[in-house]
Amino acid sequence: MGVLAGLYRMKGSFLLLCLVSFFPGAQSGDQMPSIVTSYVQVKEDTPINEFAFQIETQDPDVPPDPLKYYLSGPKANLFKVDENTGRVTIRNKLDREDDDKGVFTIEISISDGKYRVSKEIQIIISDANDNKPIFQDAPYNENVKENTPLDTVLFQVSATDADSGLAAVIKYHIDDASPTNGLQHFSINENTGQVKLIKNLNFNGLSTFYRLRINATDGGGPSYYNVTEFLSSTAFAFITVVDVPDLDPSFLNTPYTASVNEHSKVGLPVFKVSAIDKDTGINDVITYSIEATNPPDLFEISASDGIISVKSDIDREALLDIDAEVILTVKATEENPSILGFRANSSTQVKITINDINDNKPKFYNCDMEPCEETSIFTANIFEHSSKNLPVDGLKIKAKDMDARENGKFELHLEGPDKNAFTVLPSVAYSESEIQILVKNPDDVDYEKSTSMVVQIVAKDPNKETNCCSTATVTIQIKDINDWSPKFPEATYHLEINEHSANGTTVATIIAFDPDTMDVGKIRYRLLPDNILKYFDVDPTTGRVFVANSKLIDREVMDLHSPTLQARDMANNTGTTVLMIKLKDINDHKPKFNKDYVEYIEENSSLRIHVQATDQDEPPNSDIVYGIEKSHYSDNFTIDPTSGWLQNKGPIDRESMRTEDHGKINLTVKATDGGEIPESDSVSVIINVDDINDNGPKFRKDSYKFSVEEGKKAEFVGSVRAVDSDQTNNYNRISFRISSGSFGQFIIQTFIDQPEGYIGNITVDPDIELDYESTTKTFHLTVEAMDLGTGVDSVRVEVNVLDVNDERPKFIQKGPFFVDENSNIVDVGSFDAQDLDTNHSLIYELVSSKCRCNESLGLQPCEEDWFTLEPNGKILLNREFVVDYEKCVEVVLEAQVVDVLTQKGENNSETTGTVVIYINDVNDNPPVFEKTDNFYVVVSETASVGSEIASVSATDRDSGRNRHMTFSIAAVNFVDDVTNITSNKELVFKVVSTQEDDKFVGKIQNNEALNIDVKGKYLVTVVARNTEMPNLFSETKLEILTVDKSLKVELLFSKPEAQVKAEASLITMLLTSATQSKVEVVKIRSKSGSSETRASTEAIMEVYFVYANGTALNSDSAEIILSNSKERFRLQTEYGLKDIGGTEVVEKQVDPVLFVLLGLVAGLIIVLAVMSTTLVCTRRSYRTKLKAAKAMNSAAMMGTGVDQKNGPVVPGTNKYTMDGANPVLNLNMDTATDLGFDEEGSNTDRLSLNSLDYNIDMVMSDKDNMPMMRIQEEDEVEYEDKPYVEPLSEALAQRGKKRDTNSPKLTFNNPAFSSTTDL
């Protein structure tokens, strides 16, 4: 039995080895993995080592094989990939703004250990705000003239930002300035960067240099951490203020003073002035000149250097009238004209003091009269015996030395015959002094000895030896002394004068006599005592006595005055006389009335009054005559001139009197006396005339016409006036009423009128509002005036109702208006409204601006204000923005209209008005090709003439006919892959233009059949051009690769041709999914060469599997990929895919080795048949069942092995007994299994074989302990839900039960292996 068991083991092993070698399905099922990722988007500011993206892959193997991930390409150094997980992180900092503008490709490679697959994916770097604005041409240096006008654009800064979107929108502002007041002088436009002057510059008064720090800040953008960041940069602008000649020159170190000795030599420099041009940036040449000088021609100035020098001889003493100080007015003039057109200049004064030298001797001057005169002869006088040191009179003498200070010193002494009687003062003097001669010896001054005396005054300059002295001779007259008193001729004088004589009236002239000669004509008079002076006074020199106060010399008070007249001579000797002055009477009192006269009478009655006056004078001055002074009413009365009786001439009518007199007559009665100059007095006689009601009221006008505004309650309409001639309120009081025509709309109120009469104020009833729009616009009123008696008067009053602005304006629908995009036309249209009021002024205000943009259905607030609304309703184009049809196609403006003259109620329209503005499209956008791979593959065999080879699509942002376009081919070049030669193939392709929905499609068709035997690519330049003017265009380049017939694959289906054709689209879709290629079906035909029965049930589909890179699958590659794909199950079960064949094989030379291989295969088949028979014979052995039980146990135990993947390994089987299908066992195949033959065996296979041996040994050792069990024989059966009777079948059934009940069924019947015996 041991030999037999060993034989069985050898036979089993040999059989399995043969099966593994013979069947391709028994080899490894690895399939090629694929890369799913085509493009990724990565934020530009993703930090280094942060996650960038995940490489997505597909591996048809089950389970998927571990993959290794790799990156390559010029930009691969930006990323690093975890080679085990495919997780890509950032290696180096990304920069969207580099040469590729943030879009580039890298090559991704994956490897499962057997296959290495590569694919270029597109990396799109999304922008982050990581670039600061960069100033162009910074720093900015500008020279600006100081007189540059305000609002002048000085320069413009410009910054660029490499970012996109809002992050590239730059705003400018000035951060700071140096000096800081530069912020007051300059401003910057935040949008354009234009720097303007906003405050005047001044080169000299302000800074000559400004430094501005200008900030450029972008609009911000999201960062990696979803925080909006704003970036900015600064640049400096250096502004140099350029001076212009606008200032006068300025003298330095003023004020100027200098000095020079008199009589200095001509040409001697005295002083130098210096001036500069205050326009320091100009520094013009200065010339000097003397404009004025108080004494002329003493000095001159150098025009070039400002040196002042002596021009002529200078005598200080000739300049004493100006205090020896010469004042020069020096002018500095710029050489070139200023901006005002003339040469700027300025002046200053130079004061030059003339220094003295001792060149003059003292001299004498007579100063009796100004100016003093030089002389040497003088006279004086003095009373005899005058006191010692008393100066002589009449001597006004001065001594002068024209020199100054010490040079002007001189000494004085007396000479002559009478020098001992007098002395001179002072003895020493400087420059100038008054000289006095004093009495030294009074006894020598005697009138009886000598009536005159002579002395000589000598003045000597002590500092000079020659020409040092001067002499003056003085003759002194001696005067006599007075010793006599004055005397009047009479002791008493009797005098008369009228009382109240005028002031200054002479009473008498009385003269006294004095024998002293010195008193002749020099006697003085006065009246004594002093209290008499208020009545009379005397001329002190003539003795004329006169009236001092006319009012006080009143005879009725005192009729006699007796003053004393005194005379006084020059020595105060006096003499007196008495004056007896009698006053004579004059008419100095006027008549006087003793009381006032007031009388009361009724109008139309008589009056008699006695008027009396008295006079204090004596007759005839006291005789009185009466009279009435002329007045308004004086002619109505008469008076007796002697007795004073007053009476009226006729009846007195109160209404004929003036209103302002209020019934009062005021007469003035005059009483006149009989004096030579008559005096008079007056008195008022008031006569009150009482009124009686003898008159009725009367309107001042025959009719009245007024107007009143509508809608105002209690509104004043107008006034009517009436008067009653009666003079008292009791009889002239008037009341008004509206007797007719009011219709309850008006009321009238009575008031006192000024200056007389009454006024009736007509107003609208407080409960009534007049309506201009009603039928009655004019009212005709009858107004009556009535006094307290029976008097009545009436008048017609017309009242017109005026329109008031109380209606709200209403919009008049206008539009729509049409505006071309990009238009420069300012006037678009206007709003219009109407107002029913006759007087209105409408102002329009924009409420909102809404746009229909980007083909949206609704209106949204406009992002840009394309239009503005003027107050007059005009709609104007806003030049700050550009109207763009591609942004918005419709603008709806909503406005409000306001009546500024509205007087009542709301002044705006009840509803807003709208105007629709449609934006007309113009052709301003070129066609834009839609993004494609620009890479096409064409199968030469299928490309018949007129076939669609490729297609391009383009859109145009314009609308209507402006977006229409046609496609054309500009160039076609063919690059041969074999020879690498490029040739021109312009006639190969054409393009057909069509429109699909909102885009235009250009279908590339071939004009001629393509050569199916060549490989290469066509480079096709396609142009899309607008049909409307201007014919804007754009172009794109396509690569069309050709696939030759050697890559055609034939697929065999177990279905008729008609059914395969009907299901061709679904089959193509599955083939595309399985191969990830473009499937080009060439032909579907019945299988040729088969029997009629088979021909009707089988069909062949000829296809090409083409990839976008121009490669294609041959039949072998297609078979491998399809066999390992998950789509093969559906292709086989649902659509009957039976075989994957190739193209026709070219006959080759027979290889002898082939015959050897065929022999070996035949031998293996024979061995297989023998082994199969042997296994059938031994399958009923109980040992086999024991082996199966132990095999299941071993399979469970080996589940954790390192080579075990998806389930227990059943001894006696291979790895295809797991999830996949083993064709031998009529089970599902593992999709991860390669259909090819592996040269190396699987570890799992080896483990399975070893385990089989192990189980056999184990069973043999335990055979005595196992109970014998009868194994039921079974024939060949299909795989169904039947109980398994074989050990291996039972084990496989147990394995299958471990799967989840919801797992999909993994088995199918493979007709190709239906005849295989189940192991």
From TrEMBL:
Domain Cadherin: 34-135, 136-251, 252-364, 374-488, 489-593, 593-699, 700-811, 828-929, 931-1058
Pfam families referenced in this protein's UniProt entry, alphabetically: Cadherin
InterPro entries: Cadherin-domain_protein (IPR050971), Cadherin-like_dom (IPR002126), Cadherin-like_sf (IPR015919), Cadherin_CS (IPR020894)
GO molecular function, one term: calcium ion binding
GO BP field: anatomical structure morphogenesis; homophilic cell adhesion via plasma membrane adhesion molecules
Region (Disordered): 1288-1319
UniProt subcellular location: Cell membrane
Residues spanning the signal sequence: 1-28
Ranges of Polar residues composition bias in the record: 1303-1319
Gene Ontology CC: cell-cell junction; plasma membrane
Topology of the protein relative to the lipid bilayer: Single-pass type I membrane protein
Keyword Cytoplasm among record annotations: no
Keywords: Calcium, Cell adhesion, Cell membrane, Disulfide bond, EGF-like domain, Membrane, Repeat, Signal, Transmembrane, Transmembrane helix
Chief place of localization: membrane
Residues annotated as transmembrane: 1153-1177
UniProt-recorded name of the protein: Cadherin domain-containing protein
Species the sequence originates in: Esox lucius (Northern pike)
